[in-house]
Specification:
The protein is an all-alpha fold. The protein contains 4 helices and no strands. Helix content is 82%, strand content 0%. This is Guanidinium exporter.
Length: 105
């Protein structure tokens, strides 16, 4: 269950990272509010996952999920470059997340 909570926390991290782009420097009320709610939920879920998962593993997976999701949404939503080497590097992060899951009890 902790792994599911951790992945959901990572998804909310994606939400607040992308949300930051839409806040326009925290000048837009609705995107700012949604971004803050995503931050709170993400951190709360990470805290719950940390009850049973090792700190280093949980933090690495949380940031990894956030990084991969944010990078992919940056490509999709904002037209950021989707160069082959960039995608390979994103794939390596995914491999790291899977590897941590496989070696963590």
């Amino acid at each position: 269950m902790a792994w599911i909570i951790l992945v959901v926390a990572g998804l909310f991290e994606i939400g607040w990272a992308v949300g930051l782009k839409y806040t326009n420097g925290f000048t837009r009320v609705v995107p700012t509010g949604l971004t803050l709610v995503s931050m709170i939920i993400s951190l709360a879920l990470l805290g719950l996952a940390l009850r049973t998962l090792p700190l280093g593993t949980a933090y690495a997976v949380w940031t990894g999920v956030g990084t991969v999701g944010t990078a992919l949404l940056g490509i999709w939503l904002f037209g950021e470059p989707a160069q082959a080497m960039r995608l390979v590097c994103i794939g390596l992060i995914v491999a790291g997340i899977v590897g941590l899951k496989l070696v963590t009890p």
